[in-house]
Design brief:
The complex is a heterotrimer of chains A (348), B (287) and C (334). Chain A has 348 residues and is α/β, with parallel strands linked by helices. Chain A has helices at 48-56, 83-90, 112-123, 129-132, 144-160, 166-170, 179-192, 209-226, 237-243, 261-266, 271-278, and strands spanning 4-17, 20-33, 37-41, 64-73, 76-77, 95-98, 197-201, 229-234, 246-251, 254-260, 325-328, 331-333. The chains are: A alpha/beta (348), B mainly alpha (287), C mainly alpha (334).
Chain lengths: 348, 287, 334
């Protein structure tokens, strides 16, 4: 058993679109340690949701194409495991998911309780691996004893995510509870199956700003308490800083920098991340934007995709993507001209 | 002009709509050129008992009927009846339904409410049931079939136009025209109508198919134009006693109805996809 | 609460709608160009005799009094005497209703048990050969004239192949009438031979009626499933590793069916319309055949009675559909 839980290497994913093939992920690397909370940060459209869905194995069947790479989870390459096994023994059981949209992610015509119990019927930690691996096409019964045990787990978990009156909530339909409660339910469901990794895809974007912080704190607290690793995608560096142990920054389908949170915020080494940190509102109220536009993914710039907007870009940046190299402890950057100076002001 | 070219371009790309249009074009050509296309044009009214119930041959492409008349020639003249009934009945329905819907949608009050309730009552009964009652009371003739169909189909357009009018009434440009003191009639005709035209066109196209089916059913029940009319529904009814031997007699007119109705349905579906941007998006998804 | 308001609202509209329907049939029956009394009195009747008949039938009264009497009579189930059977029309209709209901019910059953799974498969195997074949069938189902399809079926299966009886509901007397539904009555009698015979007579008319209804169901189920399958909850259920079978046939289908239920009214309208001609072709002794016989006999009362009964059935079905929709869609009911 290695210290790394997940290791994505050289992952390339493309999508067939009307305008041509979009190279959404370009040989991306990502590492998550056991129990670690990793923030995957980038602007919308940078490929972070695609990366999250690739790990889960739920890319859109007809349009997405995995070109190369490996996704090693717990010493097994998920890209080489057959899809049926992935569905039965990995998804939901070892890797679970918290969606971006708690409004639309509950099935509107079933009660919350029946949906949670459906999850437990197939993914409960009470099941051993052999039981879980049985085909979903065979009829399966939720035995009375296991049902009771599962229901007990559910009630305890709902209390843990601080939902008042769990019994009543289980009898309700999704539209009858608030958005914040729904996201707490999603967190509960993600934790209930006792996974090793939770993929949380912008879990708070759809929520009220006032609730966002509570939910994030809750997620962090419950995950660390249980030793569950979390991959947390967000476009908000501040949020990432608050809850993540480690941060990976993506730009236009390429990861630019991976570093522990402290190191990252104190010494951003990639020109893009450095500009990104400076573009946060500073204390004196100024905002330094990044000139230029996000490139098209159908015809992306060759080499480092940031080079058209980069002030340090040289010839080599336009022809070949830099390999990752260390600039500090666990601090990896993919740039020929890493920034060495410290940013003028650090994030509070 | 730009939009027209856009629609025309999409139309040519849309195989479904194109097939529909071709089928309808064939029907129109058959009806218009019936006297020239028919091999025995006089057979609409002339009988040759000696040749009755002959199978398809070079002399009679689709065989002969119980009177010895050429089925193919009568089929072509039947197309004229079908077109006449469908076009007039639908025109009358549109001419009643669209103004009713516009007025009921534009104004609010008991009169609008009454208009819509009356259409709802008509819609509360399957069209053919009322059409049977009307056609039976008035007696079998083309005019009465047209009347029966017009009287039962207009509420479809009233409902549609009502709903569409209500939904675009709050759009800025409509509110602006009203605020500028443009007369209600002008707002309805120059602002609302053009904006709901595409829905009306789609509904009318699909309505043609339904009307042709109902008209054929009335003819089949003996409520259409009386013998010796070559109306398709009536021809099928006449053919029944000569089955199974004279299979061509029953199959030919039924196939004609099928192809024509299919033509209108396909064209309607295609037009809906082309004209309605909202549904078009969901269909690109669909592909 | 919202649901209760809906139900009460729909029920309140039931009476005015039926009343409106009666006004329409009353108006239609006054469209008769010839003077029915003069015709009924005969060619040699004197002016006095005709006037006496007018008084007898209440036709001397103002039109609103006539309408009032008409509505009152119809509300009590008095549709008059049939020229065709010489019996009260309401009696005729009561004896024929079970035949029509049985046929319609079997047709709906066939249409739903085939149409729903086919609609789902068509959506989950979008653009596959199966999908294309089903779409051709769907489009055909909505374009084919039911009476022609009925004749084609007769021609092929009854006349050429001899697999099924040509027409009728049963050979001989049929089962002892308990419910009026021959399939059930035959089972109650425990007579396998009669059951077989009844079923054999049922196949062709039921299949004819079911075809367009099935086409509609496939179409709406397919659209509903496609919409549901692209939703976020399916994405979530997949990400959490729910079995594909459960996602499609439980979670997606329930959502899609809620939409399909609202189309039952439309489907039922098609069934009633096609029922008339299909019963005529198969000599099926139900309401539709009664209507056709009334047409042949120029029996106005019979036709109007048919229009009202068919209309009321249709209105009731739509009322039930609205209520059912409210019941099965949790977003409506609370």
């Amino acid at each position: 058993m290695t210290a790394e839980l997940l290791r994505v290497r050289d992952l390339a994913v493309s999508f067939a679109t009307e305008g041509g093939t979009a190279k959404v992920l370009d040989r991306v690397n990502l590492t998550i340690g056991r129990g670690q909370i990793v923030g995957l940060v980038g602007e919308s459209g940078c490929g972070k949701t695609t990366l999250a869905r690739s790990i889960l194995g739920v890319l859109p069947r007809n349009s997405a194409q995995i070109g190369s790479g490996s996704i090693v989870f717990d010493d097994a390459d998920l890209l080489k495991v057959d899809p049926a096994t992935l569905e039965r023994t990995v998804r939901g059981r070892q890797i679970s998911f918290i969606p971006q949209d708690p409004y639309g992610s509950f099935n509107p015509v079933f009660t919350i309780g029946s949906q949670i119990m459906e999850l437990m019927k197939w993914k409960s930690p009470e099941l051993n691996d052999r039981q879980a691996a049985r085909s979903g096409w065979l009829p399966r019964f939720h035995g009375r004893q296991r049902y009771r045990a599962d229901r007990q787990r559910v009630l305890e978990m709902l209390a843990a995510v601080q939902l008042p009156n769990p019994d009543a909530i289980l009898a309700k339909y999704p539209h009858e509870v608030s958005g914040g409660q729904r996201q707490r339910l999603m967190i509960a469901m993600a934790l209930l199956t006792e996974p090793k990794l939770i993929i949380a895809d912008e879990p708070t974007t759809a929520l009220d700003v006032t609730i966002q912080a509570q939910i994030l704190k809750l997620l962090r607290q419950l995950a660390t308490g249980r030793g569950v690793a979390v991959l947390f995608t967000t476009h908000d560096l501040g949020t990432a800083y608050e809850i993540c142990d480690r941060i990976t920054v993506m730009y236009a389908g390429q990861e630019m920098e991976e570093a522990p949170s402290e190191g990252f915020f104190n010494r951003p080494s990639h020109p893009y991340t450095s500009r990104l940190l400076r573009s946060l509102p500073s204390n004196d109220g100024g905002l330094v934007g990044i000139p230029g536009e996000i490139p098209s993914l159908v015809n992306p710039p060759i080499g480092c995709r940031f080079h058209p907007r980069c002030e340090y870009a040289t010839e080599i940046c336009c022809s070949q993507r830099p390999e990752p190299h260390d600039v500090g402890v666990d601090h990896v950057v993919r740039c020929y001209h890493p920034v060495t100076e410290k940013p003028k002001q650090a994030v509070q | 002009m730009e939009t027209l070219r856009f629609v025309a371009g999409r139309f040519l790309q849309d195989r479904v709509a194109l097939i529909g249009a071709v089928l309808i074009l064939l029907l129109v050509l058959a009806a218009v050129f019936a006297p020239w296309l028919a091999t025995h044009p006089q057979d609409v009214s002339e009988f040759h008992p000696a040749d009755r119930l002959q199978g398809p041959s070079l002399a009679h492409f689709l065989g002969t009927d119980r009177m010895g008349s050429d089925v193919y020639s009568r089929l072509l003249y039947g197309a004229r009846i079908t077109i006449t009934i469908a076009v007039i009945a639908i025109s009358v329905s549109v001419l009643i339904g669209v103004p009713v819907g516009l007025v009921a949608g534009y104004y609010r009050g008991w009169f609008s409410e009454l208009l819509m309730r009356v259409s709802d009552i008509f819609l509360a009964v399957p069209q053919i049931v009322l059409a049977i009652a009307i056609a039976q009371t008035l007696g079998p003739s083309i005019e009465n079939v047209i009347l029966a169909l017009s009287a039962t189909y207009w509420p479809f357009w009233a409902r549609l136009v009502y709903a569409e009018t209500r939904s675009i009434q709050n759009e800025v440009f409509i509110e602006a025209s009203i605020a500028l003191g443009v007369s209600p009639l002008r707002v309805m005709i120059t602002h609302i109508l053009p904006n709901i035209m595409s829905s009306i066109i789609v509904r009318t196209t699909i309505g043609m198919g339904g009307t042709i089916l109902t008209a054929a059913a009335l003819g089949f029940l003996g409520l259409g134009p009386p013998a010796p009319s070559p109306e398709w529904g009536r021809t099928i009814a006449e053919s029944r006693e000569f089955l199974p031997d004279a299979w061509w007699y029953a199959t030919a007119p039924g196939l004609a109805i099928f192809l024509v109705v299919m033509g209108f349905n396909l064209l309607g579906d295609g037009l809906r996809d082309i004209l309605d941007p909202k549904i078009r998006r969901s269909r690109t998804h669909d592909r | 609460m919202k649901f209760l308001v809906l139900v009460v609202n729909r029920c309140l509209w039931f009476l005015p709608t039926v009343l409106g329907l009666m006004v329409i049939t009353f108006t239609i029956s006054h469209l008769i160009p010839a003077d029915p009394i003069a015709a009924a009195a005969g060619e040699n009747a004197t002016a006095e005799q005709i006037a006496a008949l007018r008084v007898k039938f209440g036709l001397d009264q103002p039109i609103y009094v006539q309408l009032y009497r008409y509505v009152l009579a119809v509300a009590q189930g008095d549709f008059g005497i049939s020229l065709y059977t010489q019996r009260p029309i309401v009696f005729d209709i009561a004896t024929r209703l079970p035949a029509t209901l049985e046929l319609t019910f079997v047709a709906v059953l066939i249409a739903a048990t085939l149409g729903i799974p086919l609609g789902v498969l068509s959506a989950t195997h979008r653009n596959s050969p199966l999908d294309h074949v089903l779409r051709v069938i769907t489009v055909s189902g909505l374009a084919i004239a039911a009476f022609w399809l009925a004749i084609l079926f007769q021609l092929l299966f009854a006349m050429k192949l001899g697999w099924t009886p040509l027409q009728g509901r049963v050979d001989g007397w049929g089962p002892d009438s308990v419910t009026g539904f021959f399939l059930i009555d035959a089972v109650l009698m425990g007579d396998l031979e009669i059951l077989q015979d009844v079923a054999a007579h049922m196949i062709l008319p039921a299949a004819t009626l079911a075809f367009p209804a099935m086409a509609t169901i496939v179409r709406f189920t397919r659209a509903g499933v496609l919409e549901a399958i692209n939703s976020n909850y399916v994405m979530y259920e997949e990400a959490m590793g729910f079995p594909r079978r459960i996602i499609v046939w439980k979670y997606v289908l329930r959502n899609a069916l809620i939409g399909t239920v609202t189309q039952i009214g439309l489907i039922f309208g098609i069934l009633i319309a096609n029922g008339v001609v299909v019963e005529a072709v198969f000599d099926w002794p139900g309401l539709g055949l009664y209507a056709v016989s009334s047409i042949l006999q120029s029996d106005y009362n019979g036709i109007m009675a048919f229009a009202i009964i068919a209309g009321v059935i249709f209105i009731v079905v739509n009322l039930l559909v609205d209520i059912t929709h409210g019941l099965i869609d949790p977003r409506e009911s609370r």
